[in-house]
Amino acid sequence: MTPAQLRRARAALETFAVETPSWGFADTGTRFGKFFQDAAAIDLGDKLADAGHVHALTGCCPTVAVHVLWDFKPGEDPKAVARLARKHGVKIGAINPNLFQDQCYKWGSFGNADAAVRTHALQHCIDSIAIGKAVNSEYLSLWFADGTNYPGQESIRDRKQRFEAALRECHRRLGPKQTMLVEYKPFEPAFYATDIADWGMALLLAKKAGPRAKVLVDTGHHYNAQNIEQIVAWLLDEDMLGGFHFNDRRYADDDLTLGSIDPYQVFRIFHEIHFFAADRGRLPKIAYMIDQCHNEKPKIEATIQTVVMAQELYAKAALVDHAALRRAQAKNNVVDAELILKNAFFTDVSPALAAWRKANKLPADPLAEHRRTGYAKTAAADRKRRRKELGLTQGGSFA
Ligand SMILES: [Mn+2]
Q: How far is the CA of 67 from the centre of ligand 1 (A)?
């Protein structure tokens, strides 16, 4: 790296943080089966401890996303949860209502024809907003499993209109510091018509809901050939990109670790963000979050791997020479324009990461340091014993 590149990559790292998901530390997996890990978190205390451990090692995961149904017991004081997070050196991040697990959601939540179910779903969102306010969370993150499985099953337009009304109502209840994120997904669990199937639908619904509703891009929620960075560029240009759920995929919503299959795609997404920031003279406010569940990899190791990969690709994308890129673009110099991106992608940014970690008193290799601490072994022994004492069989969510 040249000294200028080193400065640029380091400056980028200063601005980058990524949120870990509480559910990523618990026993989760596919709907076909879960392979339990002794070190998996049992309760929110364990999840926050694991998230705190990841933040202590990486220095870039100060917040933890929570799932209301899985993480909050009824009647629990959210402020106590915020205190517990603080004890572990992290803060509560995005609040994720659960609008898909209750039996009443068989025919959907906000899209349900039954007004009583829609009211129930809205009330859960209002409760989630209240939790968010109590813990000073900035984001209400909404994903809906709503949709239909067969042609003719329901009126697609009626369902759309129900969503418009419910999201507007939900937006009306937001606190002044809260942003509502609307996530999309093409299929699964609905296999014919998912109500919010793509970014265009999410964008329309968010615009209709109100000014503090934005689109959330889950990198796993696209068809295989879809150009995600183009979606990102369009959303940025519309000031409608609210955040990301990071993961990688080969086929569908596979929840693989970020960059494990296609690191260049993640680089291209980050490039669009840096390019936009260079044009506007400011970084857009984006919630970078991880949404992954690991059935095979040890959960903390997979999380550290993801965070480190995200930092590396973010730093690489910051090295794109925007002035040179603009010049190449103006001359229709396709080869040079492409090479400008490729050169940045293939630049080894490890000196910048090492310098940044050193300056922030962080371990040089977070994964190696995690293994050295024996944290997972201690957690496994402790959690195995507690499971036995509590008479728990391993379980967890289906994320
Ligand atoms: Mn997601």
A: 12
Sign of CA dihedral 196, 201, 203, 207: negative
Distance of CA 246 to the CA centre of its chain: 5
Q: What distance in angstroms lies between residue 207's CA and the mean position of ligand 1's atoms? A: 20
DSSP for 123-190? HHHHHHHHHHHHTT--EEEE----EESSTTSS-HHHHHHHHHHHHHHHHHT--TT-EEEEE--SSSS-
Q: Tell me, what DSSP letter sits at residue 256?
A: B
E strand or H helix at 382: helix 375-390
The whole-model pTM stands at 0.97
Q: Give me the numbers of helices (H) and strands (E) for the chain, helices first please.
A: 15, 10
Digits of tens for pLDDT over the chain (399 positions)? 999 999 999 999 999 999 999 999 999 766 777 889 999 999 999 999 999 999 999 999 999 999 998 898 888 899 999 999 999 999 999 999 999 999 999 999 999 999 999 999 999 999 999 999 999 999 999 999 999 999 999 999 999 999 999 999 999 999 999 999 999 999 999 999 999 999 999 999 999 999 999 999 999 999 999 999 999 999 999 999 999 999 999 999 999 999 999 999 999 999 999 999 999 999 999 999 999 989 899 999 999 999 999 999 999 999 999 999 999 999 999 999 999 999 999 999 999 999 999 999 999 999 999 999 999 999 999 999 999 999 887 665 555
Query: Measured in angstroms, how far is the CA atom of residue 232 from the centroid of ligand 1?
Result: 16
Instruction: Compute the distance between CA of residue 282 and CA of residue 277 in angstroms, rounded to an integer.
Output: 5
**Distance (Å) of CA 121 to CA 73, 88, 97, 169:** 17, 32, 9, 11
Enumerate residues with CB within 5 Å of ligand 1 (an ion).
218, 245, 291
Ligand 1 mean position, distance from CA 95 (Å): 12
What's the 245 CA to ligand 1 centre distance in angstroms?
5
CB 213 within 8 A of CB 171: yes
289 alpha carbon – ligand 1 mean position (Å) = 9
Question: Which pair of structure tokens corresponds to residue 293?
Answer: 């569940």
Ligand 1 center–CA 390 separation, angstroms: 31
Q: How far is CA 290 from CA 8, 96, 222, 326, 375, in A?
A: 25, 13, 16, 32, 21
Ligand 1 center from residue 295 Cα (angstroms): 17
